[in-house]
Design a protein that fits this description.
The protein is an alpha+beta fold and 200 residues long. It has 3 helices and 10 strands, in the order E-E-E-E-E-E-E-E-H-E-E-H-H.
């Protein structure tokens, strides 16, 4: 249990491919399941679209069910992403994301610090803050880091719907409120003109 604790990284071998996922051998007699929905940022019907039997793959332990001795796996993050801080994805909260691919309908993004389906997010074109008809591929090349606001989470697929526009609006609103608060605080002490008049 210590060797295969949650979050640990391992190299495994693909031993069986079924529609719902791939069974990965971590060691003789130790297998884990990599679910189809955790395999890719694009929708796939079968893991054989990405994996082949006997292929080696790097994985991380997503969950261990001690009672049933079942291990759930996610693809391991590539080099450079393995030490990213883990984020909590909650409706109406901000998250940091990286663009995977830009499509005409919007941006497929990776939520920084997460793996599997939890790391998958989508920013609809109307929520990118760009003008209608903008070529999103030119504005958002793969790897671009962005701040976004979680609008909702798909309960079936676990994918987060995100908005760049809402994050920007929230940031501007917070800055405006901070400015108003500072003005109100300053007014308690009087204007510069009032202070000069008193000195005279």
């Amino acid at each position: 249990m210590k060797t295969y604790s949650q979050g640990t990284r391992h190299k495994g071998k693909v031993v069986r491919l079924l529609p719902f996922g791939a069974f990965i051998e971590l060691a003789p007699g130790v297998e884990g399941l990599l679910h189809t929905s955790d395999l890719s940022y694009k929708r796939i019907e079968h893991p054989n679209e990405i994996l082949k039997e006997n292929e080696e793959i790097d994985v991380v332990i997503a969950d261990v069910d001690r009672s049933s001795h079942k291990i759930s796996l996610h693809p391991a993050p590539p080099s450079g992403e393995e030490n990213e801080p883990r984020q909590r994805v909650m409706p109406h909260k901000p998250v940091k994301v990286a663009v995977v691919v830009a499509e005409s309908s919007g941006l497929v993004v990776r939520i920084v610090g997460l793996t599997g389906r939890q790391s998958r997010g989508f920013v609809p074109a109307g929520q990118t803050g760009t003008e209608r008809g903008t070529d999103l591929r030119k504005h958002f090349p793969p790897g671009t880091r962005l701040d976004a606001k979680v609008i909702e989470i798909d309960p079936r697929r676990g994918e987060a719907k995100l908005s760049l526009r809402a994050f920007k609006e929230d940031t501007e609103k917070a800055a405006y409120n901070e400015y108003r608060a500072s003005v109100a605080k300053a007014s308690k002490f009087g204007t510069l003109g009032d202070l000069l008049a008193k000195k005279r």
